[in-house]
């Protein structure tokens, strides 16, 4: 861990939870920045745009530019542009649609479907419409595969559960653009002028944050906040490079 020159921080469950910062998170980030450690935020949050998350961080005492937050929506837009797609169905709250301003957002005959966090908007009618689009051959992009997340003190279904349902129904595999896909991690590291071997990923999700980043040669730190559960750690076979009670302990673990 002493070779770490930059950190990629998860947000929900690592820096904050619901509407409040986690204890010591802001001070830890300030310490990292003070000693020259690069800090970027890599999140699978898809319910709000980056500008909103940057505003939350500012309110929590962590001044951050929206450009320093790397999201699946940002990666999806880049993927769609590379494929030359124009007509796109976006399964996200309307507040997130500006991330796809370069495309025509449609609800009929899309060339691609982006699966994100609709929350209670995932009705049977909506799911059946998406199913038909995918059966008709539209590109199938998944913003992430997280199985659940924590809000209001409880675990709730996340995007991965709906992605799995569509894969099962259509017999197709989604293209993953969020964590733990390589392009998202590479873009965040590259923005600091670093390679993947020079950064560490810090998060509360054993699969997306720890196992996913380790598969790409990135050191991974699990924090025991948010989604982290002892039962998962004991049965998954995933071994983090470090386990911390919270983000507040990270500067000391890195020696800075």
Summarize the structure.
The chain is of the alpha/beta class and 256 residues long. The chain has helices at 25-34, 50-59, 72-83, 124-135, 159-170, 182-190, 206-214, 230-236, 250-254; strands at residues 6-9, 16-17, 20-21, 38-42, 69-70, 87-91, 104-105, 112-115, 139-142, 148-151, 154-157, 175-176, 199-203, 219-223, 242-244. The chain contains 9 helices and 15 strands.
Structure description:
This protein is an alpha/beta fold. The chain has 2 domains: 6-71 and 179-254, Rossmann fold (3-Layer(aba) Sandwich); 72-176, Rossmann fold, CATH 3.40.50.1000. The chain has helices at 25-34, 50-59, 72-83, 124-135, 159-170, 182-190, 206-214, 230-236, 250-254; strands at 6-9, 16-17, 20-21, 38-42, 69-70, 87-91, 104-105, 112-115, 139-142, 148-151, 154-157, 175-176, 199-203, 219-223, 242-244. Strands 5-4-1-13-14-15 form a 6-stranded parallel β-sheet, sandwiched between helices. A 5-stranded parallel β-sheet has the order 7-6-8-9-12. The longest helix is centred in the first third of the chain and has 12 residues, at 72-83. The mean pLDDT is 92.
Primary descriptors:
single chain; 256 residues; alpha/beta; Rossmann fold; six-stranded parallel sheet; five-stranded parallel sheet; 9 helices
Write the layout of secondary structure elements.
Elements: E1 6-9, E2 16-17, E3 20-21, H1 25-34, E4 38-42, H2 50-59, E5 69-70, H3 72-83, E6 87-91, E7 104-105, E8 112-115, H4 124-135, E9 139-142, E10 148-151, E11 154-157, H5 159-170, E12 175-176, H6 182-190, E13 199-203, H7 206-214, E14 219-223, H8 230-236, E15 242-244, H9 250-254
Parallel strand pairs: 1-4, 1-13, 4-5, 6-7, 6-8, 8-9, 9-12, 13-14, 14-15
Antiparallel strand pairs: 2-3, 10-11
């Amino acid at each position: 861990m002493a070779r770490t020159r930059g950190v990629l921080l998860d947000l929900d469950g690592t820096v904050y939870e619901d509407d409040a910062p986690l204890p010591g998170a802001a001070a830890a980030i300030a310490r990292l920045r003070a000693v020259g450690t690069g800090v970027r935020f890599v999140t699978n949050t898809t319910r709000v745009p980056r500008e909103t998350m940057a505003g939350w961080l500012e309110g929590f005492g962590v001044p951050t530019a929206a450009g320093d937050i790397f999201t699946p929506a940002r990666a999806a837009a880049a993927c769609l542009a590379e494929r030359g797609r124009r007509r796109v169905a976006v399964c996200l709250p309307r507040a997130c649609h500006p991330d796809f301003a370069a495309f025509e957002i449609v609800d009929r005959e899309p060339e691609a479907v982006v699966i994100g966090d609709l929350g209670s908007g995932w009705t049977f009618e909506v799911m059946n419409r998406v199913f038909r689009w995918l059966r008709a051959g539209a590109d199938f992009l998944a913003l992430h595969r997280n199985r659940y997340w924590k809000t209001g003190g409880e675990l709730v279904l996340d995007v991965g559960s709906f992605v799995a349902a569509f894969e099962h129904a259509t017999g197709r595999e989604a293209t993953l653009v969020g964590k733990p896909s390589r392009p998202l991690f590479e873009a965040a590291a590259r923005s600091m002028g670093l390679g993947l071997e020079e950064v560490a990923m810090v998060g509360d999700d054993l699969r997306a944050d720890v196992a996913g980043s380790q598969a790409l040669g990135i050191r991974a730190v699990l924090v025991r906040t948010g989604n982290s559960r002892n039962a998962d750690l004991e049965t998954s076979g995933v071994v983090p490079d470090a386990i911390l009670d919270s983000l507040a302990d990270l500067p000391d673990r890195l020696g800075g």
